[in-house]
Each structure stands twice: as structure tokens, then as C-alpha cells.
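Render this sequence as a predicted structure.
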Amino acid sequence: MQEKDVQPPQSPYLRIEHLTKQFGSFWALKELSLEVFPGEFVCFLGPSGCGKTTLLRAIAGLETQTSGRIFQADREISNLPASQRDFGIVFQSYALFPNLTVADNVGYGLVSRRMPKVEIATRVADLLRLVGLPDSGPKYPAQLSGGMQQRVALARALALSPGLLLLDEPLSALDARVRAYLRQEIRQLHKRLGVTTIMVTHDQEEALTMADRIVVMNHGVIEQVGTPIQVYREPASAFVADFVGKTNLLAGVVVKPGLARYGAMDLSCDIGIQPGPGSEVTLAIRPEDVVVRNVDANAENTFAVRVAEMEFLGSFCRVGLAIHGDKPALLADFSINTVRDLSISEGMEMLVGLPSERIRVFPGAPSAS
């Protein structure tokens, strides 16, 4: 995985300032600020109820914020109705006109703009090919599967080449193979058109593979904004580390700067002046960062484990490692080649290492899952 070379310009295309949204006593968004730059593909990522769809709807004018301001292309749109904002949107539901053919659904906005019929037909045909439905133009939505209807909705949103494209989990209704195909197609289309795009998703794989930057949200606030590699390799909080990818979260206590104790083991890791000695911390390390090849028994952060369980996941095995007792205390991902070369099997004992530079340290004990 390589980080995308994204150098956004200084002036944002979309600027959100101190946005809040309250439903009764529930705060869906809390003083949220964000900038999205021209041509970016940004994903709002987070669990259900974190506020990501509410934020998207506020940008579209489908929800009225309690306070805060929104600017698009240096124009304040905070109080403009949705009809006066420059965006195309795809909802989780299909929202197609049942009495219109697929072609008429896709071309509906083009007709409203009085484009020539020949241009409309060409544009609609191109979009239907893009979403994998080249022969579906004469059909009606009821004749299509749910996944096909969502692709029609995507084509309709793209038809007007909007300045801002908003996608609310547009791929959630599709099967895995079609979803992977459309991920690539949407990304390629974005590169070709350069339209600023915001996508809401709870699927971390979608966010990691499609986004220039990911906005990780939780309980109405932004936990972190960064490129996929930054969010994955340098999570800003234990929540981000746990939500994006698989992570071992270990309860530790600070011994001194650079050293934390986990159980009976002292682990070298990057701990600054804060938190101080005796403070509870969460130590996070990705399963793929657990080292098993060429481990030096005298090296730091090296200890004996027993393979308690193994789960075959195709190109790698997820291995539960017991440190003390019978239950797995640490998960490790070993490639199939590593498992074969080292003859790793349940019950065997071996040495593993935790590279100090790969251990992230967060204040406080791990939250209960």
C-alpha cells in the first residue's frame, strides 16, 4: 500500500466552521470544523450513529444545522435550500422515479436543463456503460435488482457533472465483486473529472482504497483527518486505531519515558513526558507488526508465546498468541509463507518481537469492547 501523492491547494473548496446539530437533547454534531480542497476525494468514516450522514445532509442542505457555517467555493451556503446548492447526491436508498425508464431517470436533470436530446442520449449511454448497465436504458427500476438500482442512482447523480458529489454509502447494496469493481470505476471517474467528492461509509476498506483523505468520526466529533496511510499507521487515538483495521489494544502502565509495563513485561516504546510514570496507557500494535522471523532472544520487546489458535484467511493466518495462561492475549498476522516456512501450528511455542517504533501509546486504559 502506497500513500497517494496529494498536494491540495491552499484555498479550500468546502469549508465547515464550528458546525453543530442537535436533536432534542442529543448532539449529533459538536463544534465540527473541516476543510475539503478542490478535486479531493474525502471519506467520512465511522460507526453507525457517529454523525457522518448528518454532516453530509447538512452540507447538502437537507438538515439545518443548529449553529455553525458552511462555505462552498467561497460562497456561504449555510442557510441556502438544497435546490440552490451545487451538488449531486446518491442516498443509501435508490430514490428513483418508478414511472420513468432507467434512461429517463439518469437523464432527468439534463432534460430540466434543456440539453439537446442527442447530447442527453450520448451522456446517458456513457453513464450506463460506466456503471455496468449498458443495456438497461429501456427498463424500469422495478425490473432491476437493488444493486442495479443503486448504480442507476449513481449515474443520475453524475449526469450533471456537479461541483460537489455527495455519496451516502452508495455501494452498500452491492455484492462484494460488484462493489470492488465500482470502487475502481468511481475512483477513475473522479480522477478524470476532478469533481470534489465526499463519501460517507462505515466500510474501512472503501475508505482506505478510495479516499485522498479520511475523516474519522465518533460521537459527533472528528477523531482524525489524514491520508489513508496516516490514519492507518499513525492513528491519533485508540478509537481510530481500533476502528480502522485490526489492532491489539494492551493495558499498560508507564514506567518512565520510553518504557511501559504490560503484565510482567517492560516494553520499549515512544512515550514522552506525558503521561507520567504510573499512568495507565493503552498500547496499540497492528497484528501484521508482530515479528516472528529472525527474532533475537536478547533484543528488546522479545518474549515467548504459545500459539493458542489459528484462523486461515487466505493469504495469511491470524494467530492468537498466549503469553500467560491459555487465552490469546495478542493477535498476529503471519503470511502463508511464514506459516509454512516456520511450521507454525497450534500449541507450538516460539519467540516474537514487538518493534518499538510500531507501538502506539494512548493515555488511559483500553475501553471495553
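Summary. The CA atoms of residues 167 and 199 lie 4 Å apart. The chain has a mean pLDDT of 91.
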